[in-house]
């Protein structure tokens, strides 16, 4: 609110936030955050003690339900590790969620889905800065991934037994340096071309927005060359 000039100080922001119903501030890394001014606001009478209790109650109730204050032996979640998180059941559920969340804008002549049984005799070209770069596949606030569980488009298609050729065209999402000749060579010999484009945290995150929705750098040119 302070950045948008709705308020003029951290104290005023704390008062407005708490009185509006906000009970949690995300201020990682800030020593002098907004809610540190709540005691002063309380002393000045800008926030009542009952309001403060009303805000804190659901917050701590949720933390208690999660077992944060229980001894480790009483909390079943404290014993979880990657063998549970990355169990076949959980990975299959993640796969199901990914498949069901795809947004297909156009499917000319039923090109999709690509079926493994139809790919054995075909030559696939996988191109673009997102085709085989695990680092750029995760958005803002993503957990730190385990490399062995990351499947890039290139890796996934190679597991299907298809004849896959790859070139990034440009090595990172900003795509400032683009190798057209290499892309044309790879795409020209393919039966099916998959172009993997996007933005990623290198281009936009929270507090780092873009002024337009255009593809970064030479990505549009890369796409046009692949289509041509």
UniProtKB/TrEMBL annotation:
Keywords: Glycosidase, Hydrolase. The keyword Iron does not apply. GO terms for biological process: arabinan catabolic process; xylan catabolic process. It comes from Helopsaltes ochotensis. Residues 103-226 form the Glycoside hydrolase family 3 C-terminal domain. Coiled coil: none annotated. One of its GO terms (molecular function) is xylan 1,4-beta-xylosidase activity. This is XYL2 arabinofuranosidase. InterPro entries: BXL, GH, Glyco_hydro_3_C, Glyco_hydro_3_C_sf, Glyco_hydro_3_N_sf. Gene3D superfamilies: Glycoside hydrolase family 3 C-terminal domain, Glycoside hydrolase, family 3, N-terminal domain.
């Amino acid at each position: 609110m302070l950045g948008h000039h709705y308020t003029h100080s951290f104290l005023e922001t704390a008062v407005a936030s708490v009185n509006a119903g906000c009970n949690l501030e995300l201020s990682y890394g800030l020593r002098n955050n907004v809610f540190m001014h709540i005691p002063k606001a309380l002393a000045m009478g800008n926030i009542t003690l009952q309001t403060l209790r009303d805000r804190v109650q659901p917050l701590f109730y949720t933390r208690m339900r999660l077992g944060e204050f229980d001894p480790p032996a009483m909390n079943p979640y404290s014993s979880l590790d990657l063998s549970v998180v990355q169990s076949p059941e959980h990975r299959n559920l993640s796969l199901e969620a990914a498949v069901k969340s795809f947004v297909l804008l156009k499917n000319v002549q039923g090109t999709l889905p690509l079926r493994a049984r139809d790919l054995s005799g075909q030559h696939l070209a996988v191109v673009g800065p997102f085709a085989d770069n695990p680092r750029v596949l995760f958005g803002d606030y993503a957990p730190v991934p385990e490399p062995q569980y990351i499947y890039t488009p290139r890796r996934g298609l190679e597991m299907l037994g298809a004849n896959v050729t790859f070139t990034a065209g440009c090595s990172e999402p900003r795509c400032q340096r683009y190798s057209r000749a290499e892309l044309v060579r790879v795409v020209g010999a393919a039966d099916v071309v998959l172009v993997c484009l996007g933005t990623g945290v290198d281009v936009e995150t929270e507090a780092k927005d873009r002024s337009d929705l255009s593809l970064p750098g030479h990505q549009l040119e890369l796409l046009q060359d692949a289509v041509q």
